[in-house]
Amino acid sequence: MHSPRKHRVLGDRELIVMMASIMALNALAIDAMLPAFPRMAAGLGVVDANRIQYVITAYLLGMGAGSLLHGPLSDRFGRRPILLASIAGYILCALACSFATSFDMLIVMRVAQGLCGAALGVLVTSIIRDQFEGDAMARRMSTIFLVFMAVPIVAPLVGSAVLLFAGWRSIFDLFAIMAVLVLAWVTLRLPETLDPENAIPIEPRALGRAWKQVVTNRAANCYMVAGGTTQGALFGYLNSSQQIFDRTFAAPDFFPIGFGIIAIGIACANFTNARIVERFGARRVSQTALFAFITLAVAQALAATFVPHSMPLFLALITLNMAMIGFVGSNFSSIAMQPFGAIAGSASSFQNFVRTIWAALIGAVIGQQFNGAVTPVALGFLGCGLLALALILFGERGQLFTRPGTTRHIPL
């Protein structure tokens, strides 16, 4: 087992909680505002209720674009200055969103906030990598993610609590307040973790060559896009989730609880995946989960047709299918990165860029189809599952359930 590197900067507990808090700012910026969609639309004069979903899409697009920037910048100038600048930018953009006088202004500020927020996840991984490697790094990243997963579960409840006492603009003020606390903590306690000897100059040609390797690798490219496709189904639900509980089930007050139940499903899937993937292999686990995802999507479509107003059935099916996305997403990302050990940083940032932008666009398309029923989400899940399967079949040349470097079929 690999041991921690010599330049550890914080105790494990503080490091894990700090990194999870940094990542949590992104989850808050997306999930906590969902309960405020009706008031936000009314306050900004948005007539078409589906248009308010662009507040989420804009942030996701900013995050995707920012994925290309922060990795190379932090490799060149260090983790600390890029992280501090990004959190400060996140704060300023949150305050600008709070004072937005038009929907267009809000969308622009959300893109900018997403650009800043993109650094948070990228730099957490880099900071942990600077101090640990191998199993030690994987163990801490898993723990950080488990701590972080508590945020999507409670974020809508937090947003709903704010709305009990203040307007929708106060939710953006909350983002700023939380980010100020994190900024102060990072400023006081986190020194630079990048060894000056490991600083890498920014070389556009080298980045271009790395990105070319990614897009010309058949299997990696297919897993990258397939991962974004299934994530797009998740974003499609996320965009229309508040409207589903409000208009379809006439249960707006239950939305934070229902959202939390689904988030728990994803958390359990990630927890389970971390414990079975080495035993069964990333391909076997993720491809099995993809077939289950498609089967459940068929069940969702049937339920949407024959029992469209059954909230318990909807919750059960979508919670199970979100869990399948938990099994698919992380494993597809790992498989897509396997060929690029020598250019891991550049390849990871490029893949995250493509995956997030693609997923955000798919999610926007699914969300904009909302018509008062759950059918668009169900059909969106089914379409995404079938497209992802086609991509994996193409990337693996028709050979599924194989171990890396073999073509041996592993029976289910």
Automatic annotation (TrEMBL):
Gene3D superfamilies: Multidrug resistance protein D
Membrane topology (UniProt): Multi-pass membrane protein
Family matches, as NCBIfam families: efflux_Bcr_CflA
Transmembrane segments: 15-37, 52-70, 82-101, 107-129, 141-165, 171-188, 257-277, 289-307, 313-332, 376-394
Subcellular locations according to the entry: Cell inner membrane; Cell membrane
CDD domains: MFS_MdfA_MDR_like (cd17320)
Keyword hit for Secreted: no
Protein name: Bcr/CflA family efflux transporter
Lineage: Bacteria, Pseudomonadati, Pseudomonadota, Alphaproteobacteria, Sphingomonadales
